[in-house]
Model the fold of this input.
Amino acid sequence: MSSPINILIVGIGNTLRGDDGIGAYICSCFDQLHIDGVKTMLTQQLHTEMVDELLCYDHIVFADASITGEPVDFYPLKKEEVVPVSSSHHVNAVLLNALAKQLYQKDLPIMICSVSGENFEMGEGLSATAKKNADNAIDIICNWIRGKCR
Done:
């Protein structure tokens, strides 16, 4: 018998900037999969007001485009990283976790899914490389979710 899951996938990025829309694409695919206990949220950037909503989930995946690194990097948040100064363009997962810890004495269970893209110019749609990488990321996240259902 599997245990119920309560997972949020947060797609980060701007769909009008080519491959920066990878996070939205991943969320759209998960919406079509209709996996019980998995919800999605889209945002162009992280903001501190999200902390209250993030507290409601057992697991959180931040899916975002990257210009460097592997085609797909999927790993738990490194909570020992230095927390940046808060401003509207410098909120990241580490800062959100630090706020949850300071305000609510709770570590957020965050996984990072960084997906490599190549075209971040103005325009809609993903490049072939970004779509291939995002589809691979979806497979990785699905396998991870299956592991959480056991």
Observations:
- The two ends are 8 Å apart (CA to CA).
- The first helix runs from residue 22 to 33.
- Residues 52 and 67 are 30 Å apart (CA to CA).
